[in-house]
Amino acid sequence: MAKDYYSILGVAKTATPEEIKSAFRKKAHQHHPDKSGGNAEKFKELNEAYQVLGNPEKRKTYDQFGSEAFSQGAGFGAGGGQGGFNWSDFSRQSGFGASGFRNQDFNISDLGEIFGDFFGGGRSSTRQRTHGEDLEAGITISLQDAVFGAEKVLELTKEITCDHCQGNGAEPGVKINTCKTCKGSGQVTISQATFFGNFRSVAACPDCNGEGQVPEKKCIVCGGRGFKRGVETIKVKVPAGISSGETLKLSGKGGAAERGLRPGDLYINIKVLPHPLFKRSGDNLLTVKNISFSRAALGDKVDVETLDGQVSLKIPAGTPGGQQFSIKGKGVVKLHGHGRGDLLVEVKVIIPNNLSRSQKKLLEDLAKEGL
Ligand SMILES: [Zn+2]
Ligand SMILES: [Zn+2]
Predict the structure, then answer these.
(1) How much distance in Å is there from the Cα of 188 to the middle of ligand 2?
(2) Domain tally for the chain?
């Protein structure tokens, strides 16, 4: 039976990969069978839809042939079971051993990330965090900054490394003991009942975060976590040539985490303000220069504004309105590569109105000449 994977995920046919992923995530959380009100059938259907639409190649095939292309025996998928469930990927990524659900249609690269809440978080104390929180922030910059690059300063309220204990969670000067929970090994074995059966997995010890050691007295400021809420001033180097809508990733500038774990990353969304004179088109800038029709007919040298200051542009005699001139190297600095784009100047010929009496007389004379 043909299925509409787009409507299952509730996205448009034109949805971006990001939109598809986020729609899947939302719905998968909503319908996960472990949740109250969860629905195993719906959950399975969501996975099936995402397995196809989340993969650019499969999505193309689906757009062309529909879901039939992915039904059993049609020759797609990774072989074995139905529809190409790739168990080895799943078990490797989520850290669980194989059990008996080979017939399910799971093949999701970021399963671990998406279901971390369900598989890793049966009890909050066993929740496995590998790093601090990833954060997102926005910066609005001028076109000038986008063209030439800039350094911006951002003040973010987030989890920061505790300055009292330098992030190690110990009250300065106290003794450090072997962790009693894991006896210094840093690891604990977790047995968990889940929707798919019982799983045993080895995880970092929650009491020492895998370090095997705990301080005799925890830091009085952060309670031993190694981080606290605070403000951090972050310098952001905006590279020349960046465009609106692009995202910069600052590794390790997200939220600080428990001792032993690396901090999260910071993603900065760039927004470039419109400029009154210049419009961007790739590496080029576009601008419009108004000239009188007599200058267009006779030719002239005109001053043109660029982001580098004024330059002189020669307008040849007989230039029609709409003609474009290119000023080399006055465009955008190329983000990936060398040099700069050009400034494209479109000439707009202004037809005068509100003529003075003498101007009108001159134009009438021109008209008599057939112009
Ligand atoms: Zn501290
Ligand atoms: Zn421990």
Answers:
(1) 8
(2) 3
